[in-house]
Each structure stands twice: as structure tokens, then as C-alpha cells.
Design a protein that fits this description.
Layout lengths: L12 E7 L8 E4 L11 E5 L2 E7 L7 E8 L6 E9 L6 E9 L2 E6 L4 E7 L5 E6 L6 E6 L4 E5 L9 E5 L8 E6 L5 E6 L4 E5 L3 H11 L5 E3 L4 E3 L7 E7 L2 E6 L3 H8 L9 E8 L21 E3 L10 E9 L10 E3 L7 E5 L4 E6 H6 L35 H5 L37 E2 L3 E4 L11 E6 L5 E6 L3 E6 L6
Parallel strand pairs: 13-17, 23-27
Antiparallel strand pairs: 1-31, 2-3, 3-4, 4-5, 6-7, 7-8, 8-9, 10-11, 11-12, 12-13, 14-15, 15-16, 16-18, 18-22, 19-20, 20-21, 21-23, 24-25, 25-26, 26-28, 29-30, 30-31
Amino acid sequence: MAPTASPKDHFPSLVSCTKVTDEKDLYDVKFYPYPTGDDDSIFAVAGANDLYVCRPRLDVESTFEVLRWFKSDSDKQDFNSIAWSRDPVTRKPIICAAGATPKEIQIFDIEKGERVRSLIGHGNAVNDLAVSPLSSTLLASASSDYTVRLWNLDPEYEDQPCVAVFAGEGHRQHVLSCHFHPNGKWMLTAGLDQAVCLWAVPSMQEIKEYRKREGHPRPLIVYYPHFQSTEVHANYIDTAVFFGDLIISRAAIDQQAYTAAKGGKASKAVPTEILMWKIDGFDSNDEPPTEPPIPVPGKWTRSSFPHKSGSLGFQRCLTFDMPDTTRFYLRLSLLHQPNMRPILVMGNEQTKFHFWDLQKLEEGYDPNELPIKRPAGKKGKKKGGAASAPVSEGNLDRLGELRRGESVAGSDAGVGTPDLSSTSVSFPPDRKYDLGDSFMALKAHHSVEAQTTITKGHFATAQIAWSPDGTWMVAVGDRGMLSIFHRDKSVV
């Protein structure tokens, strides 16, 4: 019988910490998400006016090799976001890249090693890119012009590639993040206005019918999100991603620190947080409600999904303690693939990486592990934050049931790795992990400090990416630093 992996074996090990470029910050990294003929893991890195396409390596002197280097001679080029796609005709890999300048999305052909196209339409910087899981031709872009645009790269839409614009009653300031639901029907956006928005993504059939009706290839305008709130976080939000139908997001500063700063008593000792939360009544498989909610003066959350009268329309579920991440534009990363343990990870400003095994939260702690005590005085609803259910013995005992929108069962059957598609998984009381207090900040299951003599002092991590097979993890950040992690396939 093969030995059982210890909890730490599920997390990747730091293989190397090196520089890609001298003193230039790196802002984004993404792995090629589509199958390759030789099963290679390929990743792209964006920093200022450079794009790198690389391949990680094991058991060689250099832990990665640069396959392509797109270098701009112009100081006006400033990349901060990238997304992989495929050419609609040849199906060969392409990279979509954008940033503060110019105000356009540039598309690079990897095999040719050259820029082949630009998408023009935004009136300000582009801050994030995302490709739809439904089609590699559908690209979303979040911008400082307060809008999110949906583009179709297919030659059919060459005359007007922007097919939809999400604007109007969504964001009032720069949009920093956009993320598709795995089913492609919904999109999350977040930004400097402290708002999180959930939009119904129009189907290509809707877009075609709109263009035919208008008699002109103008983009469809989506004025209203189906959910919008500025009450989830207390400051600007630079990451919001789906975890099933749950949402994981982070702001650069938490509620306590924000309140302290308003009173002139800000303290660096106050930790920043990542939140997991849910929109009441939201089921991604349902058709979007026919009428999105209309803004009402003095109301900071609006939702078209069914929720109790008088409630905020959303629930704070879990809090993850993430210290030393008060800087702008530091992003968390979520590995959430079929048949893999879901892992949340983020790097901070002190060269540390913090990992949470989200399946471990569902399974419960081993009886030999020390329980985490609930801080005193944190019960019920916390002023200035999201609504929290009163603490009780059976409240949110298992993350899996919460993620599936189910009530907590009372059965004691079944121990071991749960089937996330099942609706009857339960665990003995001695393996429960106390998830009853949504304001209790959960410490990381595992942390790694990246130590190197290449650069002086600490360096912050801007972005982290996982390979499709879950074996590689790459992080990029300050001063051209790139950290590579690896784990064996047997523990994925």
C-alpha cells in the first residue's frame, strides 16, 4: 500500500526564486490552459513593455527557459494583464496583452513571434483580461474607463469585435478585475469604487439578434448588473473570483484597518483579509432574472435574486487571514479544477506565500491537530461588514455543503475524501472544523518564505498562476522576481 500523503505534501515546494529582468516589476502570469501535443506546461509573463513565454524545467541548471520574448522599443508600452487564447482559424496559441498604455488590447502570435492585431475601444487603461470558458474567441477586458467590454476574436466580427459593453449602473470608478463563472453565463467584476458586480453574460445568439435588429454591428449595452454591492469590502477590490457559486475576493485593507484609518489611528498590525461569501438565491444554472435591480438612493446593495426582506442579500461565509497585503494590485490565486484539491494561495509584501487547502476545510481537521479558538466577542453581525449568522454548533460545519447551497446535515456517516458531487457527505464531530464564525480569520494551512540573495530585502507578489495539471505554480512580482513551485502529480 502506498504511503498516505501528509497535509503539507499537497502543497507545492519552492524550486527557485530568480530574476527575469533587472529592476522591472512583473505584473501578471498565466499558464496556457489548452491541451498541448507534448503535455508541456507553458506560461507567459507580463512586465512593463515586455512579454515572456516560458517553460518550467526540473532537474536542470535553470528552472525555466524563455521560448519567446516580445520586447517593445517604446517606453509608452505598459503591460499589466495577459490572457491566453487560440487563433479562431488556425487554433494556434495567441496571447492577449494590455495595460495602462496604449489604451488597447494587443494580440501576439506565439509561433510567428509578432503582434498580429489590436483591439481598440477602451477610453482608459485596461486592468484585467479574462477568456470565456465557453469559447476561446470570447475575451473580457476590465478598464479604468468604468466599463467592461466583451470581444469576439472570430473573423465574423472583424468589422466590430467589441460585441457587448457592461456599463451604466455598474461601476463608478476604475474596474480592476473581471472573472467568468465556469459555465460562462455569468461574470464578476470589482473595482476602485469598492463595488462587486455580477453580470449576466449575453449569449452570442442574443448578440446576433441584437445586431440584426439594429441593422448595425454596434455592441450590445448591458446597463444593469443582477447584483451590485459596496458593502462586502471596505476598500477597493482588486480580485473577485468564483469558487463554484461562492465568491472569493479581497480588498487591499480590511474593515478594522479602514475604520482605524478614518479615525487617524491606522495600525500596520491589523491584518488584511480574504473573504469567501455568497449571493443569496444565486444559482448559476438558473436563467437570469428577467429584471435586474434598479438603483435606489441610500441603498448600497441591490440584488435581483430571492432573499429575505431586510437582509443585505449576501452572506459572509469565511475569512482568511492575509497579513502584509495592503498594497494596491496584489492578487490571490485559486486552483479549482476537476479531480484536484482546491487550493487558495496568495503572496504578500514580506516575500511569503500563504496556502489554504479548501478541501481540508470541508473534511475537517485531524483530531491530532490543535483546534483554532474563536476570538472573544465575535458573534452575530459585525458593524460595517457583511451579515453573519449567529454562531451555533451546526452552523457551516462543512464547506462542501455551503458551496452546493445545502443545509447542514446531521448524519455522522463517512470519513475520508468527500465526493463533492454528493449531497450526503458528513463527518464525525471530532473532525469538524469550526466554520461557525464567519469573522474568525483562518490562518494559512501552509506558508513558505522565498529567500534569495538576488535582490535586497523583500519583494511583493503581484500574481500567481497554476499549470492546468496542478503540478506547477509560478508567482511574479517586484523587481522582475519570478518564483517557481512544483509538486508531484501523485498528490494533486
